[in-house]
User: Which sequence fits this backbone?
């Protein structure tokens, strides 16, 4: 028995009755509400209605089974009739649908409210974190003219060992970089596995080190005995009480970090991170969106200049602060994620920083040495192991 075989009007009547009483949608409460509606259903039907109502009232409604699938990383709703998932094999459409856009809108508003955020005509979009680390983005019509859009990004269900993510010599090189306390950025496009790889690298840090993780939403999952997490907070409806990544980076520096980690560098916090890496906080790291390694200096320059640094100051900071860039890609068609390059940041005669490949990892075959491999070996001698 599923919700589809039970009258939607009956389900809605039970929902309203439970909402008025403030009762939880347990099987007993649902049975009582059904009796009050003079509906006669068997035990299986009552349990089916209870499950459907729990999903609607405190879960993700029709999306609940998709979120429970172990390999799913993204659930995307494009209006009432299109629900897509990414389970590591690329995006594919599911048979799940909603009755109408009002149902999608109700779900979006309830999820936003559960995260303490407002979603309505006056504030038609929201970006928030739900319990369990799920990232929510929702946007309402008429901003989304074809219907309410929902994007749910799930955190990794488990931690991966480095060897599971990077085979052979690549794993040896990355282990050597962590052991040498190199400062690095994991770069790549959206959905390439930057956070997953960074979690695995942080798991290799010495157990005696104190890791300070600064994130917009808690996604890093290192297996390590001493992890302290700091998480941003949005401003309230009056615009007060917000805590930014930059605020948290500054606080983390006062908390005796052995490794300062910024989950995703995307704003003015880059200035404080680079300053910290230049003043004795070695071993720091983070992730950065970039389509290819060569774009990294320009991305950092854009962020830091917007925060008030001059171009010359930015490149001086980058050259002194960062040792390497680890670039990850996702193969065409939504295929597997893999490390593509390990690069070194070097300062050119112009004074600007450039990214030079040290190790390249083709999709097939053995790793290839790049022109900056001797420089990488100087910074992390065990890379050649």
Assistant:
């Amino acid at each position: 028995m599923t919700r589809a075989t039970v009258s939607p009007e009956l389900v809605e009547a039970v929902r309203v009755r439970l909402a008025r009483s403030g009762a939880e949608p347990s099987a007993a409460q649902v049975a009582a509400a059904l009796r009050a509606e003079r509906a006669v259903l068997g035990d299986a039907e009552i349990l089916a209605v209870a499950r459907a109502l729990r999903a609607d009232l405190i879960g993700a409604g029709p999306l609940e089974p998709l979120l429970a699938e172990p390999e799913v990383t993204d659930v995307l709703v494009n209006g009432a009739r299109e629900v897509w998932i990414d389970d590591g094999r690329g995006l594919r459409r599911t048979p799940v649908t909603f009755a109408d856009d009002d149902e999608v809108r109700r779900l979006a508003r309830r999820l936003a409210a559960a995260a303490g955020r407002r979603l309505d005509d006056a504030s038609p979009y929201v970006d928030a974190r739900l319990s369990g680390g799920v990232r929510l983005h929702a946007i309402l019509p008429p901003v989304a003219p074809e219907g309410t859009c929902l994007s749910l990004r799930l955190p990794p269900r488990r931690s991966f060992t480095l060897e599971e993510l990077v085979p052979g010599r690549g794993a040896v090189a990355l282990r050597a970089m962590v052991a040498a306390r190199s400062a690095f950025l994991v770069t790549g496009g959206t959905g390439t596995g930057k956070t997953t790889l960074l979690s695995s690298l942080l798991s290799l840090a010495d157990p005696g080190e104190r890791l300070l993780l600064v994130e917009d939403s808690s996604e890093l999952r290192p297996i390590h005995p001493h992890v302290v997490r700091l998480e941003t907070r949005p401003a309230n409806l009056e615009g007060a009480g917000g805590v930014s990544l930059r605020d948290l980076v500054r606080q983390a520096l006062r908390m005796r970090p052995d490794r300062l980690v910024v989950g995703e560098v995307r704003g003015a916090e880059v200035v404080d991170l680079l300053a910290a890496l230049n003043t004795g906080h070695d071993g720091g790291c983070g992730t950065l969106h970039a389509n290819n390694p060569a774009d990294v200096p320009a991305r950092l320059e854009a962020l830091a200049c917007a925060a008030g640094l001059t171009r010359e100051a930015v490149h001086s900071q980058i050259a002194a602060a960062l040792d390497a860039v680890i670039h990850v890609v996702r193969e065409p068609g939504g295929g597997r994620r893999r490390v593509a390059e390990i690069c070194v940041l070097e300062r050119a005669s112009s004074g600007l920083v450039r990214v030079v490949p040290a190790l390249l990892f083709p999709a097939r075959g053995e790793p290839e040495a790049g022109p900056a491999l001797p420089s990488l070996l100087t910074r992390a001698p065990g890379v050649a192991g």
The mean pLDDT is 86. Residues 60-154 form a domain with the Beta-Lactamase fold (CATH 3.30.450.370). The first strand starts at residue 74 and ends at 78.
